[in-house]
């Protein structure tokens, strides 16, 4: 009965909030106050359990991959699509999807969770499967330091009841194996030795000389290994066989994340799907909102790339070709973007010096322009106002355009872009 | 490589770039490198790693912050090179130490559990670990105008009697949130909690370090006229942002 009341009130709040044009946080907050056990109780009823995906880079895309792969095998998947990876966002998403009987009509939940919020979540909801992607320095004004973030993930891992899937290439992640419960199965994903220089972990990324540390001595064998890629064809080794997928995802980091997704899905599905089927389904997954998705506007292809931390920006610059592509960079400094601008100084922007940057925008446009100046990257326009900058950028010549943006800049740009093209309003 | 005997080289030494380089501190080295070039010098960046011989001739020394685990690795080495750093400090070599190395340039750091980590005492200052972390935009007034940055630290630093701070807090917490001081200064050695990064948005201070290095080495400093309008605009925005 309690749940039904919570649901009625929550939904009413949501309708009222929508009418006033406000965001999705309020209904979740109301639910949290009224009935703190709501989220846990709802998720506990799911027959195939609860999957949580966390780590610094790649959560949203990986959550989408896992959701779609499990759906391709016939499971009904509940996921926090909006990428709102706080507990409140999950409560709101549950309100949206709960059926007339007062529970979720799904088989399994696949949830993306921010590292700090994951700790709160696992104390309130039963997590059966956990996938941990990587730990990189990110938004230190929120987490304080990278070892602390790894420690948070250890705490999360200790609550998983069935399976934990770890990135064997990231020593802070693979070390988490020692924190799981004795009955829990541990699986690994990783990249072949030959790709070490691409998938550098945080320590290697911050070495300033060629004095590299010894490679990790006993890397566990990976259940799924990314063995090579060529453009967007990626080959994964699973169960002794190699499978190649023609991916629609961009960015080399997403290829590694896909290996993690495959490892997780095989542990959830067991005999229900073959490795071959899963890799085939992988080829159908399109980029998540704001993660390299391409929008068509008139004669132009516009790509939106979310950047949140030095490792992510670095990989984004390396992954996306810059030939004949006009570039805009939008940097905000609200809470969700990261308030400390220091992180920009840990990214090497010199690859942009040949083509230059058309527009720099966002609240901290001048900090970004200053950063580019010190890397000798020419900038055509600096315009802090996103609307004005976007108009200027879209009017400029060029068939291929790309915007690197921080989180709240991404949200605002998507709102502005709606008048040019049909796209899902995420938040 | 330039073989011009007139090339005025400035050696910029970064301490512990692998362990004490937590966030944007590389921006300080890059700023000194570029501005030195723009002012007509040839910068040479060198690094000191734990356990290696200390390069004794440095014209500017830079150090950053690190995590607690990184700090442990450098503690012993820092004590070993302490005397060399004192010598450089006493003859006026300009240095800027941010966050973790600022603390270790003091007398000691006492963790909240009570463990005492000895510093090299270039600043007569002590730091106490605190359970709360101080995070946000900060503006201080200093001998070089306003210095604008972002602080993020759980250590509270207290300066000894007579020790000059780097600046006085206009907005933010500073050394300990109590006495309004930020950072510390001894001759041309500056310690501070400011990230942001520090030097890019504070070109007047960056040029002061280069000037002191040039005066010591060449006896003169004729700065180029640089266009710092971007830094100026970035400062305006940063100073207006909420805490």
Task: Walk me through this protein's architecture.
The complex is a heterodimer of chains A (427) and B (243). Chain A is 38% helix and 19% strand. By secondary structure, chain A is of the alpha/beta class. The longest helix of chain A has 18 residues, at 2-19. Chain B is an alpha/beta fold and 243 residues long. In chain B, helix 1 packs across helix 4 (203-218). The interface between A and B is large, with 34 and 38 residues.
Largest interface: A-B, 34 and 38 residues
- Structural class category of chain A: alpha/beta
How widely separated are the two ends of chain B?
45 Å
What is the mean predicted local confidence, pLDDT of chain B?
Answer: 93
Please count the beta strands of chain A (DSSP E, at least 2 residues each): 15
Average pLDDT level of chain A: 85
Rg of chain B, alpha carbons: 17 Å
Sheet with the most strands, sense and barrel status of chain B? 6 strands, mixed
Q: What integer value in Å does the Rg of chain A equal? A: 21 Å
List keywords for this structure.
heterodimer; A: 427 residues; alpha/beta; nine-stranded mixed beta sheet; six-stranded mixed beta sheet; 16 helices; B: 243 residues; 28% helix; 31% strand
Give the arrangement of secondary structure elements.
The complex is a heterodimer of chains A (427) and B (243).
Chain A: H1 2-19, H2 25-34, H3 38-44, E1 50-54, H4 59-72, E2 77-79, H5 87-97, E3 108-112, H6 115-124, E4 129-132, H7 140-143, H8 146-157, E5 163-167, H9 171-174, E6 185-191, H10 202-205, E7 224-230, E8 233-238, E9 241-246, H11 252-269, H12 275-282, E10 291-297, E11 300-306, H13 310-319, E12 325-330, E13 357-361, H14 365-374, E14 379-382, H15 386-395, E15 400-405, H16 407-417
Parallel strand pairs in A: 1-3, 1-4, 2-3, 4-5, 5-6, 6-7, 11-15, 12-13, 12-15, 13-14
Antiparallel strand pairs in A: 7-8, 8-9, 10-11
Helix pairs in contact in A: 1-2, 2-5, 4-11, 6-8, 11-12
Chain B: E1 9-15, H1 26-38, E2 42-48, E3 60-63, H2 68-90, E4 95-98, H3 100-104, E5 108-110, E6 116-118, E7 125-142, E8 145-159, E9 167-171, E10 181-182, E11 184-186, E12 189-192, H4 203-218, H5 229-240
Parallel strand pairs in B: 1-2, 1-3, 3-4, 4-12, 5-7
Antiparallel strand pairs in B: 5-6, 7-8, 7-9, 9-10, 11-12
Helix pairs in contact in B: 1-4
